[in-house]
Design goal:
By secondary structure, this protein is an alpha/beta fold. It has helices spanning 10-18, 22-33, 44-56, 60-73, 79-98, 159-176, 206-240; strands at residues 7-9, 108-111, 119-121, 124-127, 132-136, 143-150, 182-183, 189-192, 197-200. Strand 8 (189-192) and strand 9 form a beta hairpin.
Length: 241
């Protein structure tokens, strides 16, 4: 399904900003405009289990998800589905090895249950979609933040990408969670599952926000041409059927 309005995930926007490859930027935009079916929600069971585990401080949530994956792996739909299940199992095994309730010590941790708004940057809808709300009511004024699991084997986060993704998490908290308190980058976390680490958003963010604004302006300008090329490719495919 082609997406007519400029839209990009936070992780892909972070990658878009830091990559020097014009080809990679183009690929990112084409995949965001017309997401491959096998990429959408690839690790949904993993991110849900991680959020439940951290919010409830209960490792059994991970064990339950692993049991579900093992059951599905006994009768996969195809080879690709089986590989996705194996990757999900690997992700949960890595998370289990790095899980620590101490990371969020002193914070109220809860899951987001409602559909979250986009972060609009220069006319582009950025899909941030954190899984966890982090709240420090003891501070004056109260502090608020959020946490998001990053799960990818093929595109590991480098240091620059981590900082841009953290900046977007903090920006999201500032725009959409301000009614709960002051957005604090120190309690906005990326849970880099395959990287095996928890990363707080950078405290300095002005120059990164400026770069994100510029990148989104570029994306908004390029989007109509991307959609046009996708439509032309669809039309060509239909005529050859």
């Amino acid at each position: 399904m082609t997406i007519a309005t400029p839209r990009i995930s936070a992780a892909k926007l972070a990658e878009y900003v830091v990559t020097s490859s014009a080809r990679r930027r183009r690929t990112i935009l084409f995949q965001q405009a017309d997401p491959p079916v096998h990429i959408v929600d690839r690790y949904k069971i993993v991110s849900h289990a991680i959020a439940k585990c951290i919010a409830s401080k209960d490792r059994d949530e991970v064990n339950a998800a692993l049991a579900t994956i093992r059951k599905r792996a006994k009768a996969p739909r195809n080879e690709r589905h089986l590989q996705r299940l194996k990757d999900a199992q690997d992700a949960l095994n890595v998370f289990e090895s790095i899980y620590s309730s101490r990371v969020f010590s002193g914070l109220e941790v809860s899951r987001f249950f409602r559909r979250l708004p986009y972060l609009n940057v220069s006319g582009v809808d950025v899909i941030v979609k954190p899984e966890l709300l982090l709240h420090d009511r003891r501070a004056e004024p109260p502090r608020v933040g959020c946490a998001k699991a990053y799960i990818s084997k093929s595109h590991p986060l480098d240091e620059d990408s981590q900082k841009y993704l953290g900046t977007l998490l903090h920006w999201f908290a500032e725009e959409h969670l301000q009614f709960l308190g002051s957005a604090d980058p120190a309690i906005c976390y990326i849970i880099d599952v395959f990287g095996g680490s928890y990363i707080a958003a950078p405290r300095t963010y002005r120059s990164r926000r400026k770069n994100l604004l510029s990148a989104c302006e570029e994306i908004a300008d390029r989007w109509p041409q991307i959609i046009k090329k996708l439509a032309e490719a669809d039309a060509e495919y239909e005529t050859t059927e």
